[in-house]
Amino acid sequence: MTYMHEKWMKLALLQAFRSKGFTGKNPNVGCVLVKDNKLLNYSRTSCNGRPHAEENLINSISKKEILRDSSIYLTLEPCAHLNENNYSCTDLILKSGIANVYISCIDPDPRTSGKSVEI
């Protein structure tokens, strides 16, 4: 199973790399959505930093029931602070039904740092 985790995280890192230099003040983040070891979709942070990679990924899935019991691989801990729409990426993930969240590193931003992991 470790091989599969590594495979999906490498794909998430590739997505993050593809947005490097285009995300403004926000970090370039990549994410991958997997269910039953099959790739459902992938995404990255939008130009100028909004929407975040997680929001792009969740919004790209038209049949939301597919999200239930899936796994998301993220290159950075999802934000826990509220944005201008009054939600965070952590909120979006929880509401979506995604069962497993794998992150490559904790967000150094004090508004999030470790909070999503606790949630």
Give a topology summary:
Elements (H helix, E strand, L loop, with lengths): L1 H17 L11 E6 L2 E7 L8 H8 L10 E4 L14 H8 L3 E4 L11 H4 L1
Structure summarized in a few sentences:
The protein is of the alpha+beta class and 119 residues long. The protein contains four helices and four strands; from the N terminus they run H-E-E-H-E-H-E-H.
List keywords for this structure.
119 residues, alpha+beta, 4-stranded mixed β-sheet, 4 strands, 18% strand
Please tell me about this protein's structure.
The chain has 119 residues and is an alpha+beta fold. 31% of the residues lie in helices and 18% in strands. The protein has helices at residues 2-18, 53-60, 89-96, 115-118; strands at 30-35, 38-44, 71-74, 100-103. Strands 2-1-3-4 form a four-stranded mixed beta sheet, sandwiched between helices. A hairpin with a 2-residue loop joins strand 1 and strand 2 (38-44). The protein is globular. The two termini are 25 Å apart.
The chain-level structural class is alpha+beta
Number of strands: 4
Biggest β-sheet description: 4 strands, mixed
Unreliable stretches (pLDDT < 50, length at least 5) are none
